[in-house]
Amino acid sequence: MEGRTIGISGDWYNEFGSHLRITSDPTGCIRGTYVSATGHAVGAYPLVGRYDTAAAQEVVSTTSVTVTAAVGRLLDACEQAGAVRPGLDPTDVITLLSCLWRTPDNPDGAAWADRLMELAIDDFRP
Band of the pLDDT at 112, cuts 50, 70, 90? Predict the structure, then answer.
């Protein structure tokens, strides 16, 4: 199998008849749906995610320095204005905010994101 790429796109079924459909692209994006054949789940659950690929890692590597520098400049300006406490690390802020795109795109997810932001903002305050 050396040198051979195995894709994960396709339709997958388990022994209970549940169905997982996945598509992926070279940048590491995964999209799909999951339909449970058991329990009380109704309809298809949307799935979105990422997996590591050389292309995805290259994008992250080439953009992370620029994004980190931009967030650093923003934090410096906010600190000078007295809007945030001194010494916030741009990498910490980016990592903390990354949880926001993991919340579901529905009213419960929006409420969850609001709670997470409130926690973060409370710690940013001077």
Answer: confident
